[in-house]
Amino acid sequence: MTEYSVSRATFDDVMVPNYAPQKVVPVRGKGSRIWDQEGKEYIDFAGGIAVNALGHCHPELVKNLKSQADKLWHLSNVYTNEPALALAQALTEVCFAEKVFFCNSGTEANEAAFKLVRKYAYDHTGPEKHEIISFNSSFHGRSLFAVTVGGQPKYCEGYAPVPAGVTHLPFNDVEALKAAISDKTCAIVLEPIQGEGGVIPATPEFLQAARELCDQHNALLVFDEVQTGVGRTGEFYAYMNTGVVPDILTTAKSLGGGFPVGAMLTTTEVANSFGFGSHGSTYGGNALACSVALAAITLINDDQLLANVSGKHQLFRRELESINDEFGVFTEIRGKGLLIGAELTPEWHGKGKEFLAAAAEEGLMMLVAGPNVLRMAPSLIIPDDDIRQGMAALKRAVAKIVQN
């Protein structure tokens, strides 16, 4: 096989310019550590954008992947396979859902959910019941339907006309929701914690109102748990400590522990609107992905691991507050479990990526959620010492930025 010499400059030569990756080119990972082409070591607070829930190259996931690779990779859904059925059984045992649709990503899981809510309303009421209510600053993926439902207009620019029948409201505004919902509404779609929108948790009152209003108007409640799901908040799914149960839940990211896989979870009644031929995915539910995902969720759905996530949240918060006590760069630290956002003060608005670049120079990888919020979504099993060392690197980075 031909060997290629690649660098960051190669990206500009051969890749579509829809990304602007940092100059670091990681080549190896282990646990919560990453090494680049030059051998420099980094602590990983980014987690592949909340994907690598068990860190890099977790031995159980690697073992499972190698084992399945010697058996069966892909069949298409003309047939089914044992890992897909086992994973579906496991997911229905751990949450409210009775039926599962597998795909490859969060975008695809949401696309399936958005199609299903309209199909369900069509089947039970008629074509006039098609409106989807979503919320400002939400993010649900990058397909045309998904960016339309998402509440960030910048992602729709240049793609008009976009699908009709989507209404966006202020997040956490119960009165606005009461005023907007009608018998034409087929679904309310929300994230229990808005991830890309700035790590903004939904209030308990808002979630409860969404559930009650859906029930009153015969609409479905969809929780996008692509980012909050599979242990990220200290619950297996974030809805589990809210007292509110959705009709449909979408999940991906941490579901595969780094292997591409997504799923839409729902009840039997709602699932029946996706009859034979109504939706599909060539790769969705392939044996490799489902085998790895089953190993991942088996490890994550552990009482002690989930309890530790909440403990690690407190350590992150203490360290961030300590940095803020010294430098005063954050207005608020928010989130739950190991989905954490630190909003920059107005002085530093629009400069989130500068903090990312400075942190990388100090040996720390992290994220932003928009231009004004530093976001951390590390491995759920990141050692406490790695958290402290990563925060020391962030402190050095903040000091350099502030002093300049």
From TrEMBL:
One of its GO terms (cellular component) is cytoplasm. Homodimer. Binds 1 pyridoxal phosphate per subunit. The keyword Endoplasmic reticulum does not apply. Pathway: Amino-acid biosynthesis; L-arginine biosynthesis; N(2)-acetyl-L-ornithine from L-glutamate: step 4/4. This is Acetylornithine aminotransferase. Keywords: Amino-acid biosynthesis, Aminotransferase, Arginine biosynthesis, Cytoplasm, Pyridoxal phosphate, Transferase. Belongs to the class-III pyridoxal-phosphate-dependent aminotransferase family. ArgD subfamily. Its cofactor is pyridoxal 5'-phosphate. It is found in: Cytoplasm. Pyridoxal 5'-phosphate binds at G106, T107, F139, D224, E225, V226, Q227, T282. The modification N6-(pyridoxal phosphate)lysine is found at K253. Its EC number is 2.6.1.11. GO terms for molecular function: identical protein binding; N2-acetyl-L-ornithine:2-oxoglutarate 5-aminotransferase activity; pyridoxal phosphate binding. N(2)-acetyl-L-ornithine binds at R142, S281.
